[in-house]
Amino acid sequence: MTTDCIQPGRNAADSFKNAEAIANYSEGPPRFVPGFEALHRMTAILLAENAPATARVLVLGAGGGLELGTLARAQPDWSFVGVDPSQPMLDLASKSLGPLMARIELVHGYIDDAPAGPFDAATCLLTLHFLDAAERLRTAQAIHARLKPGAPFVAAHSSFPQDPASRPTWLSRYAAYAVAAGASPEQAASARVAVDGHLDLLDPGEDEAILRDAGFSDIAMFYAAFTWRGWIARA
């Protein structure tokens, strides 16, 4: 999931039921997330450091299947459970992943709808920024509860300084990058307004504290790109 699909005045979850947003999903993330493809490749590398050769991986916020595709191609003996609240996005994932679906189970819902596990690894990319701090912590705790002890977890989402002096500057950079990457100025401006008005964004330090409070350890930031941050941690 990415913030470019959010429309002003629209609930974040409802945005991923929008036909136009779904149809353009594969084009959107690279325009708004610097190093989008590299983020997926790095995630595969980080999980493989500690996950077994036949790992079962939980992917929360599976979206249209882009992350699942990268991970499945990188590790042909891994299996996956992808969870997402948007059935149309899961339908897109099922269609786009083709033969890879033999190793992938898709679940319509939220973290509470995911199997209990225990999983060998988990990811939650471009998703947690849709949740307020309390629900973000509860979700991180639920992911932790589904992981084997020591299992790797990769999280990445919108996270940048939130003080009144810094926040507008970073939001403008977010929009400027999108234009530089091929989005129209109108699309970028609309996304900036939506992010500013509809997401409960946190400072990177607060996001890291949530992972720690959820029970994760060995937390390390591995990705920082304008308004985006990513962490590797262990259950």
- SSE arrangement, N to C: HHHHEHEHEEHEHHHEE
The fraction of residues assigned to DSSP E strands is: 15-25%
The secondary structure category is: alpha/beta
Instruction: Please give the alpha-carbon distance between the first and last residues.
Output: 24 Å
Walk across the major sheet and give the strand order.
3-2-1-4-5-7-6
- Name the average pLDDT: 92
Main beta-sheet strand count, sense and barrel state: 7 strands, mixed
Low-confidence stretches: 5-11
Number of helices: 10
Number of strands: 7
From the spread of the alpha carbons, the general shape counts as globular
Blueprint of the fold:
Layout: H1 12-15, H2 19-23, H3 28-32, H4 36-48, E1 56-60, H5 66-74, E2 79-84, H6 87-97, E3 104-108, E4 121-125, H7 133-145, E5 152-158, H8 167-180, H9 185-198, H10 204-213, E6 217-225, E7 228-234
Parallel strand pairs: 1-2, 1-4, 2-3, 4-5
Antiparallel strand pairs: 5-7, 6-7
List descriptors.
235 residues, alpha/beta, seven-stranded mixed sheet, 10 helices, 42% helix
Describe this structure in words.
By secondary structure, the protein is an alpha/beta fold. The chain has ten helices and seven strands. A seven-stranded mixed β-sheet has the order 3-2-1-4-5-7-6, with helices on both faces. Strand 2 (79-84), helix 6 and strand 3 form a beta-alpha-beta unit. Helix 4 (36-48) crosses helix 5, helix 7 crosses helix 10 and helix 8 (167-180) runs antiparallel to helix 9. The protein is globular and about 45 Å long. Residues 5-11 have low confidence and may be disordered.
